[in-house]
Design goal:
Oligomer: single chain
CATH superfamily of the largest domain: Glycosidases
Number of domains: 3
Number of helices: 12
Number of strands: 31
Radius of gyration: 25 Å
Largest sheet: 8 strands, parallel
Shape: globular
Mean pLDDT: 90
Distance between the termini: 54 Å
Structural class: alpha/beta
CATH class of the largest domain: Alpha Beta
Amino acid sequence: MKAEIDCYETSRGKPFPHFWESTGFSPAKLLLRSDMEQQLDMLGAVRQHGIRYVRVHFLLDLVVVKRDRWGVLQGFDWTTLDEALRRMVRNGLRPIFELMGNPSGEYNHFSTPQALSAWRDLIQALAVHLEEEADFGQAEVRNWLFETWNEPDIPNGWFPGDAEAFCRYYDACAAGLWAVDEKLVLGGPGTCRTLSNLFTRFLAHCDRGTSCMEEGKSVRIDFISVHEKGAKAHAEDLTPNSTRIVERESWAMRYIAEHHGSKLGRLPFFNDECDPQVGWWDTHTWRAKAYYPALAAKIIDQHDRWFVKPFDPKRILESGVMPYGLLSNDNGFLGCWGQRTLLARFTDTGTEDTGQTGCKNAGGRFDPCLGSVPCELIKLPILNLMSILAMLGNQRLHLETDDRGTAGSVGVLATRRGQQISVLVYASDDQIQRSGEREVSLRFNGVNLAEHQLLHYALDDTQEEGNPFQVWERLGAPEAANGELTVDMLNAMQDVQELRLAGDIDGSTIDPAGYTFTLNIPSVHLILLTPRHAPAASAPEILWSKVYPGLDGRINRMLRWQTPHEEWVRFYRVLGSNKMDGTFVPLNSDKTVLVDNGFVHRDVRQTPYFYRVEAYGYGNQPPAVSHVHVAD
């Protein structure tokens, strides 16, 4: 395969939106646990806000209804919900806030005017509280996305009612939210069955219906959301079908264009559970390897070519393509290597998280004794893909290649941000056992390579660097529950959990005929071309540190920082000392490169410790150094 990349002036570049920056999990009560809090810290640390949204089921289960002794409503206790939301917001994460749950078990149906009015009042009180709460406020909440109940079309599943009840429920949600602030964003229906009866009935209600809560008022909706995935839930390694995901989405879009195009056809379209396979709980080892990020990159590229790149507002009715708003993977769960997770989680009670099972019938029950869960977390390659994707630019480059079909095994995304060029190349077949290699040659037309530095990041299974699962296997697959997992083993996995740097090259040494490398199947590669005389890296600002309970009574400390103009940072180095004026020694391994804004210092002591973070830029510039952070 040959890919020719032509660079254009910034003013001529076409936008390249990052529509995939989201994840999700269930249930909301996990937000109050230390292991989920640590995971949120790590998601928020992805460079350049590579993960922006988190979609969580049953948030309203964290609300308590307050009544006096005669049963008269006195208001709501938002304390637990606020703490859960705070843990997201402090990391720069925005909720996709599903208006889903049953506070104190009092909201069991939507079949009577009294029940609908009570729900509207709850949602109105929620909106007032969120916009008045000091840690959120109106400006922040207007950036959130509010959504309907999750997957209401599952028979005997999440939603307490039929399609008609769902339409009434939506009207109550809309009336409550927009009575407070008409700039809040609300959409749905988040259905999981392609063109289900509930989906089509709800669209008709939004197009031609009137609100049951406000007589004669038309129904407003801000986005349309569905769930389409690549394979059903199964304990076997079924082969995900990536093309079928975009095909089924296009069926929904075309239905909207043909039946409701004049009102709904210009709304953003979301697939906010676009996972390769249904079911986070089944164990599929390919999720711990390069197959998962390669497949995810392919799905993003397919969506870009089917829905994003060719979109033309003037041709909505003709093409049946809607503006694409968001693609989310529901992979923020807590679990083991092969479950649908972003991190592998080790606890002394086993790897699977029983707190996530049976959550469909939460019914307002909340266990306040879930706070401290000793664990150890290790990054998976799929989380590193989010860091790679974050380094893509915000404008497209013209691209020519001889091997880039919709279902092909090799794909390319070429972008720029200012003077920085980034090219993502992936190899992915919808075949679990497929392997092999291809030679790739990238040519950068119109670029003086001698004035640039080329970085080559890789996610593949050829080396242990970037593959902590391979290290775990080599160590004999140790488990924490039976005492096999030692600190040295955890450190060995942590040493290789970041991105593998496959090349750091002075552009003057690159053959003008092209930069050539081997592309293994499956794999993801990012080629980053930056002027050698780029601006110097800015000094990181250490935001905070927090201790988390590790295994066997140990303590782990999460260190978080932020850096202005992250695009000029090649990598970070974290240093520590037990004395303010002592010798600072590197804490993170040089086997892989740390490109994100967080680091877990494992097995620390509860005594003052001093940290410093160095940001390394391009060329031969010295690192920019943070202030010294004192952690107690």
